[in-house]
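<instruction>
Derive structure tokens from the sequence
<data>
Labelled lines for chain and fold
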Amino acid sequence: MSQVILITGASSGFGSLIAQTLARQGHIVYAGMRDIARRNAAKAAQAVKFAADNGVVLNPIELDIQLQSVVDQAIETIIAEQGVIDVVVHNAGHMSFGPTEAFTAEQLAQLYDVNVLGTQRVNRAVLPHMRERGAGYLVWISSSSVRGGIPPFLGPYFAAKAGMDSLAVTYAYELARWGIGSTIVMPGVFTSGTSHFDHAGQPADGAVAAEYARGPYAVVADVVMKGIARLEPDDNDPQLVADAIARLLASPAGARPFRVHVDLSEDGCEVVDAVMERVRAEFLRRVELGDLLKAIPRSATN
């Protein structure tokens, strides 16, 4: 069944692949991008061309998740055109790379704003519509770094992703009785095929960064990147993330898993999550809230 889907951060990387994949599956896809009139004009044009060439519905839409007014307008535009938003894919995010001490507090706040607060702005705009219908689905693109192996020099980004992941868990509880489902997708490291590392933020405090570059951590950045690349198998393709989301949407609402791992480098996240999920379920049942573990669309029960 065709669904109306909004994807944040869809100008490149995972977001672009997810948008194209879901459009090919017959869904009505809105690809959220910042500044489609200028900065992302070429990306928006590519999305339009892809739709025309493949006979699918893939609409670029202005979406700056750091501005509530722009988010509100995007949601209202989709509702006006389609009457509904069935799915939101929280994909937008920004990476940083460098010694944590060399990033200013303002830089960490900026990472948190993009990776965490951006999801909150979108949710506040779209959830009233989903709650009114008693149905909807949130897909959160988290990271295996939240639970798995954590190399140095990626601390601010990992901290922001952990914040988003924690928010996603809480939202799942608070939306289940409204009939709104949630899945957290856990990609491993993908050093190619996305723009994460190419566009990673650099520390603003050059003097501190230089001290790390000259001192006992002089080779760490190079070791981290080479080590991560070594862990990746040859078939580590970011398309795997898009395919995983396509399978989620093809599954019945009540059968969708809470977490999905796409981590061919096996950094240990899946092992830790198995324990965390058991603890999560047991705790909710102990406080007599076990029904929050699964969302059932209210329309299906009427």
Q: What stands out?
A: The mean pLDDT is 93.
